[in-house]
Amino acid sequence: MFRQWMMALLVSAGTAPLALAGAVVAPANGHYATQPGSAELVISFDGAQRRFALDGSSRNGSSCSLSGVIQLGAGRVIARTVQPDAPVCQLQLRPEGDGWRTQVLDVAACRQHCGMHSEIAALFLPLPDACRWNMREQTRARFRQHYERRNYEQALQILDGLEAECGGFIDWLEADAIANDRAITQFRLGQPAQCLRTLGKTRVAGFSSLEQLEQLRSRLQLSRLEHQAYLPVAQATLYNRNKCQQALAAR
User: Fold this and answer.
1) pLDDT digits (tens, 9 = 90+) for 224-239
2) Which residues of 78-87 are buried (b: 16+ CB within 10 A; e: fewer)?
3) Coil/strand/helix, residue 144
């Protein structure tokens, strides 16, 4: 996942949802994320105070950095920033299914922390440990180890497990990067048709040549930062597709 699109929201609580006066429920310890994974919510408790921290950016590069405390009362769960020389940004957390939905209570104040276009209002769902950003990176590193050792079947199984457990939490850019990992592994396994099907699900499936990538940003309506991050993935996609097309034609 392209980390610049990720937001991390840290809120503290006990190890299980805690019912308080007025039927207020505090968030449980654990990791939560949006689907797809544009934001991550981590809940913890330091033994004395419920706290939160948010750090991330939007598609257009607007940054967002928040930290503060959680206050419970009057039937509400409020995340309130405590940062010197900055206006107080308040978010209300509402339970929804297994997760929590955030709502901005003071848009003007929160923009001072998060920019004009940063989105911090979202539904955060429980995130399996294996799907946290650093754990996904470790999983892909294990894939590369098997691939480089030519253990292609094992490498493919690693990607199968990653996508089965974490697919909903992976953003489009990381998904296309993983698709390239899968496709080139299928190519090495002598499966060019499967390789082409895999790459046919990427965002550049409709691009016919490397020359057309000059239109990548306008055709996909990418921000400057997205374009910089996605261009090498798009180039790899068309290169791998060409290899699989040649292999299929040679049969």
Assistant:
1) 888 998 999 999 999 9
2) bbebeeeeee
3) helix
